[in-house]
């Protein structure tokens, strides 16, 4: 069996199409796992949902931004933080406008129900008996700091404790990594869009599994960042400058230099 494992598309069908093309070049797959953050913080939320929803044998779970679109929650800064630091006002306004813009598209196009029905996690037992869990941030969580390179083994062990799985697949932090602790294997897929790695590539993984075991193959895919910037500008997105910073490599994580 072959599966494509994908997370954090963030309303960028240009990057998504590059990933889907790479999957076909690699020989195709039997199914897909999409681990959340489909629409928000991108220029074409509906285009992404239309593409992924037509793929065969696909499983979908929610990310934190998918939940924000339904619940009306916001990631911060919180009003009390802004009260204590006026420098956060611009960030608060930008994030609220960002999510409100996407909410409008989702509501008007009829995709709200689809997002509402997303589950927290997806599970599968591989042919060799490996218990595999997919979740956006960490077992039991679609939000929070997530699984990132800064975690100690003890911190990672605590995050993975609720997993009830041998193999855990996550996204959320946009930073691809692979770790093992206490016999548990965890893979962070990174992100399709809004990259924070120096190469600014879309990242995902291919899973190959049979009765003898499984293999994970992280993939790094180039795409046209200037085309994304042009599309952002044409969309009149209220957080256009924030989005284009990712495409210009201005939001590369400090983890990349550790």
Automatic annotation (TrEMBL):
Query: Which terms in the Gene Ontology molecular function aspect does this entry carry?
Result: phosphatase activity
- Protein origin, superkingdom: Bacteria
Which SUPFAM superfamilies does UniProt cross-reference here?
A: Metallo-dependent phosphatases
- Quote the cellular component terms of the Gene Ontology held in the record: cytoplasm
- Calcineurin-like phosphoesterase domain spans which residues? 1-210
Question: Which Pfam family would be a valid example here?
Answer: Metallophos_2
The UniProt entry's sequence similarity note says: Belongs to the metallophosphoesterase superfamily. YfcE family.
In its UniProt entry, what is this protein called? Calcineurin-like phosphoesterase domain-containing protein
Per the UniProt entry, what species is this protein from, by scientific name?
A: Ktedonospora formicarum
């Amino acid at each position: 069996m072959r599966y494509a494992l994908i997370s954090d598309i963030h309303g960028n069908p240009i990057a998504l199409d590059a990933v889907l093309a790479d999957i076909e070049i690699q020989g195709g797959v039997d199914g897909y796992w999409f681990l959340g953050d489909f629409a928000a913080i991108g220029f074409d939320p509906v285009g992404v949902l239309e593409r992924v929803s037509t793929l065969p044998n696909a499983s979908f779970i929610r990310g934190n931004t998918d939940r924000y679109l339904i619940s009306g929650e916001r990631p911060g800064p919180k009003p009390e933080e802004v009260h204590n630091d006026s420098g956060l006002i611009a960030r608060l306004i930008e994030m609220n406008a960002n999510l409100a813009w996407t909410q409008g598209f989702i509501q008007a196009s009829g995709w709200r129900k689809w997002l509402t029905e997303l589950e927290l996690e997806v599970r599968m037992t591989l042919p060799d008996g490996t218990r595999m869990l997919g979740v956006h941030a960490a077992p039991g969580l679609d939000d929070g700091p997530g699984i990132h390179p800064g975690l100690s083994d003890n911190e990672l062990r605590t995050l993975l404790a609720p997993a009830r799985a041998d193999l855990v697949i996550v996204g959320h932090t946009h930073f691809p990594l692979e770790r093992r602790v206490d016999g548990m294997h965890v893979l962070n897929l990174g992100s399709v869009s809004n990259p924070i790695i120096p190469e600014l590539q879309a990242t995902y993984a291919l899973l190959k599994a049979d009765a003898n075991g499984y293999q994970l193959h992280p993939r790094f895919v180039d795409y046209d960042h200037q085309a994304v910037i042009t599309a952002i500008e044409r969309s009149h997105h209220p957080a256009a400058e924030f989005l284009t910073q990712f495409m210009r490599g201005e939001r590369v994580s400090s983890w990349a230099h550790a």
